[in-house]
Amino acid sequence: MRHDIIMLVFMALIAALCTSSSQAQGVSDTEILVGQSCALDGPASALGTGMKAGLEASFAEVNKHGGVHGRMIKLISYDDGYEPDKAIENTKRLVEEDNIFALIGEVGTPTSKAVVPIAEKAGCPFFGPFTGAEFLRNPFNKYVVNLRGSYYQEMEALAACLVDRKELKKIACFYQNDGYGQAGLSGIELALEKRSMKLCATSTYERNTLAVKSGLLEIRKAQPDAVVMVGAYAPCAEFIKQAKKVGMKDVIFCNISFVGTEALKDALGEAGEGCIISQVVPFPWDDSIPLVKEYQAALAASPSEAKPGFVSLEGYMVGKFFADVAEAAGQELNREGFLNAVSSKGNYDLGGVTLKFGPSDHQGMDEIYLTQITGGEIKQLEE
Q1: Coil, strand or helix: which one is 274?
Q2: Once rounded to an integer, what is the mean pLDDT over residues 335-341?
Q3: Residue of 10, 83, 191, 237 with fewest CB within 10 Å of its CB?
C-alpha cells in the first residue's frame, strides 16, 4: 500500500514537472503565448502598431476556428520606442517573466540586433521580424525565422529601376545612423557596384529625430538624379519636403519597405508625388490574391480599426505563418520541434503566396515589389 502511494506521488511529481516545463516555454493545454517588442509610440510608431494589428487580426482568426491543436494564441506586446535598450528590457521581461514560447514581429534592425542574443541564449524562436537586415540571414541562425526578403534584395530592385530602366547616373543615399541605415547603405552600394557605379553622395541623421537639414545640404551639393533613403517615415518625409523646397523637385526619392508606406504618404501630402517605395509583401488592396482577401476580412473584423496597408499585411502573414508552423509541429508543441517544422515542411502556401524554406534557409520570400505615390495614392509600379 505504501509503495503504491509513493509511486502515485512520484508520477504526480513527474507530471507536474512536465507541465511546468511546457508552460515555462509558453505552451499550456489551452494557450500558446508569444511576445512582441516594437515601437508603439514615437516617430516609428506606425510600424509597430501596424505589425501588432496584423498579428492580432491573424491570431483572432485562428482562435475563432479553434486555435492550434485546441490552443489559443495570445500576443503580449510591449513598447520599445524603437530604442535598443528598451527592447532588451522588454525582451528579458517577455522571456524570463512572461515565459513566452516565441518572440514575434520585432520591429527594426538596431532593436533586433540587441535582442537576438537573448533569444539565442534562451533557445527562443525569433520569428518574423520586420527588418531585412543581413545579419538575420547570414550566417544562418536556426533560431531566426524570416518571412520577408532582405534589404539587399530591395536595393537590387531599386537599382534595377533607377539605373537599368531609367538610366540614371547619379544616385545618393540618405540613411539612419545605426545598424538599419548601414544595412541599407551596404545594399545599395553592392547593387551599384554590380553596375560599375558608386554613390555620388551620402549623408545621415540620428534615429528618432527629424534632424535632416545638414544631411540634405550635403546631398544637394552632389546634384543627384535620385536619392535612396534608409529611414523611418517621419524623417524621410521631412527630408523630401525640405528637398523639394530647395530646388530638388526633379529628383526621384526612393524608400525601402521599412519606411512605412502609408505613414510616409500621409506625412508627405502633395510632396509625395513620384516617390518610389520597394515592398516585400503583395499589394494589400489586390483581393484577387486569396491571402489578401482573407487579410482584409480579418482586419475588418478586428477591434484595432486599422486600415489595410503593407505593414499590417506583413504582420498578418507572420501570424498566419506562425500558426501554420505550430500546426505542423504537432500536438506536443515545443521550441525545437517548432523550429524543425519550419525546415522539414519546406513550403507553406499562405493563399496564393508561397513561402519556401530549407535546412539552412530561414527566409521564406525573395520577391520584391515596387510601388509609387501617384496622385495621392499608392500604386503598383509597372516595369
Answers
A1: coil
A2: 96
A3: 10
> How does residue 288 score in pLDDT terms, banded at 50, 70 and 90?
very high
| Cβ burial, residue 97 (10 Å; 0-12/13-18/19+) | exposed
CA atoms of 119 and 145, how far apart (whole Å)? 12
Secondary structure (H, E, C), 190-256: HHHHCCCCCCCEEEEECCCCCCCHHHHHHHHHCCCCEEEEECCHHHHHHHHHHHHHCCCCCCEEEEC
> Is the previous residue joined to 139 through a cis bond, with omega within 30 degrees of 0?
yes
Number of H helices, E strands in the chain: 12, 14
Radius of gyration of the chain (CA): 22
Please tell me the pTM assigned to this model.
Answer: 0.92
pLDDT tens string 153-176: 999 999 999 999 999 999 999 999
Is 115 within 8 Å of 37 (Cβ atoms)?
yes
Residues 6+ apart with CB under 8 A from 14: none
Instruction: Say how far apart CA 291 and CA 321 lie, in whole Å.
Output: 11
Query: Is the separation of the CB atoms in 284 and 308 below 8 Å?
Result: yes
Cite the beta strand spans of 61-141 per DSSP E: 72-79, 102-104, 126-127
Rounded average pLDDT over 258-285: 97
Which residue from 342, 333, 348 is spatially nearest to 360, judged by alpha carbons?
342
Instruction: Read off the pLDDT of residues 186-196 as tens digits, 9 standing for 90 and up.
Output: 999 999 999 99
Cα dihedral: 339, 343, 120, 27 (round 10): -10
Q: Hey, what's the cell of 330?
A: 504537432
Phi-psi region of 317 (alpha: psi -120 to 50; beta: other; left: phi over 0): alpha
Q: What is the pLDDT of residues 53-94, one digit of tens each?
A: 999 999 999 999 999 999 999 999 999 999 999 999 999 999
**Domains of the chain listed by start with CATH number:** 8-148+286-356 (3.40.50.2300), 151-279 (3.40.50.2300)
